[in-house]
Design goal:
209 residues; mainly alpha; Protein Binding, DinI Protein, Chain A; 55% helix
Length: 209
């Protein structure tokens, strides 16, 4: 899942300098709990699977032509050999072109992602911004997959507030991309063991009055 780049640093730049507050979100957890996003992602995956099968069929045609040529070439006159070789080269060029069309950067798959996923991502971004403005947060960091985040206290995670802003029940799919911030806390010993294994937890929310 492509992350929401504008969230990585700050969401609201126009908030007052005085009384700045910091918070974090987990966009992977949020997206995993938004039904529209999962539906769109399933559609993208179906397109990708259909196009992979299409390429496999094209590759099978090329392989069959090559195998037939290898078996029959010693019987063919030169003009037919040349014709068969040209046919193989044409099929191979068509296969390469189709691979580029479907899966190259900016190709059909990227376009489908933009068409189906970006509207939902924009809704999530707008909800984060609304929560940030209502709560007067100056900076909202995204802890999903950030290599620079060392620790965050879950009480400063506003992911569930964002889901509520989207009209989604928080924690409906807690395994999707992250831990429900409102889930039952583990014992201090278990929390310590977990923090050792996950050095990229998140940014601590701060408040400067």
């Amino acid at each position: 899942m492509r992350k929401l780049a504008p969230i990585l640093l700050f969401v609201v730049l126009a908030l007052p300098v005085q009384g700045q507050k910091y918070a974090c979100v987990n966009t992977a957890y949020i997206m995993g709990n938004v039904p529209e996003y999962n539906q769109a992602l399933n559609k993208v995956n179906k397109y990708a699977e259909e196009w992979r099968k299409e390429l496999e069929a094209k590759q099978a045609e090329v392989d069959e032509l090559r195998e037939q040529y290898q078996q029959e070439s010693y019987l063919l006159p030169e003009n037919l050999k040349q014709r068969r070789q040209d046919e193989m080269r044409t099929k191979e060029a068509e296969l390469r072109s189709l691979q580029q069309q479907r899966f190259a950067p900016g190709g059909d798959l990227d376009q489908k992602r933009a068409e189906l996923l970006k509207p939902v991502q924009d809704r999530v971004y707008n909800a984060i911004e609304r929560v940030a403005r209502e709560k007067n947060y100056a900076f909202v960091f995204d802890k999903a997959g950030s290599a620079t985040v060392l620790y965050v206290s879950e009480k400063y995670d506003i992911s569930n507030q964002v889901l509520e802003m989207l009209g989604v029940k928080p924690g409906a799919n807690p395994e999707a991309g992250g831990i429900n911030p409102n889930a039952t806390q583990q014992s201090p010993r278990n929390q310590q063991q977990k923090s050792k294994g996950n050095s990229n937890d998140d940014v601590m929310q701060k408040e400067r009055m």
